[in-house]
Amino acid sequence: MTPRLLSGLTMALLCVACGQQDGNRFASEVVIEGDAVPVSLSGEPGDAMRGQSVFASREEGHCVLCHRVDGLDAEFQGNVGPALTGIGGRLTAGQIRYRIIDAQQIWPDTVMPSYYRTSGLRQVGHAYEGKPTLSAQQIEDLVAYLSSQTP
Ligand code: HEC
């Protein structure tokens, strides 16, 4: 194989990878910068109060299945994942957004579902089978809620 052909092939392979990086695995176009998704998915700011209910509600995100936020009024709060108390002081809104939409890209072995991913999903167990992913606005509401959790 000539070096030129080889480099052509390498470029083609890289482009498959960069297609992934471009966010083609999501429900809408997502731009990833480093470990963050800096731009709102819905083009609208999130609402922290709505985000709190998405976080706690069994019908929506139900993040409390695995996470606790001190001071949150919810019947049950889990500890499979880290407590998210003060998370807004540790992560930027863009970093929080990326972790919600595609935790499995950041931590390949995580039990946390990728909430905005539509392809390449791996099943995480019966509890999550067939669960709808969250909408762009629900994710923005969660980002607003968690960003408001400062120490
Ligand atoms: C099945 C359990 C589970 C569910 C449900 C879950 N998470 Fe997680 N989450 C985790 C785990 C575990 C981690 C830590 C990453 C790891 O090491 O796997 C994590 C990490 C995070 C982090 C990063 C925390 C940090 O300190 O870096 C954020 C933010 C987060 N989750 C938000 C959410 C939100 C919002 C929801 C609901 C939409 C949610 N999680 C649902 C298990 C879960």
Could you characterize what this model shows?
The protein has one domain (3-147): Cytochrome c-like domain (Cytochrome Bc1 Complex, Chain D, domain 2), CATH 1.10.760.10. The chain has six helices and no strands. It is mainly alpha-helical. The chain starts with a helix and ends with a helix. The chain is globular, with a radius of gyration of 17 Å. Heme C binds at residues 61, 63, 65-67, 80-82, 84, 87, 96, 99-100, 107, 110-112, 115, 142, 146.
Low-confidence parts lasting 5 or more residues at pLDDT below 50? 11-21
Straight-line distance between termini:
59 Å
Overall pLDDT confidence: 84
Number of helices: 6
Percent helix among the residues? 25-40%
What's the Cα radius of gyration? 17 Å
Heterogens: heme C
Number of strands: 0
**Overall CATH class:** Mainly Alpha
Order of helices and strands: HHHHHH
**What is the CATH H-level superfamily?**
Cytochrome c-like domain
- What structural class should be given to the helix and strand makeup? mainly alpha
| Count of spatially separate domains | 1
Supply the CATH architecture. Answer: Orthogonal Bundle
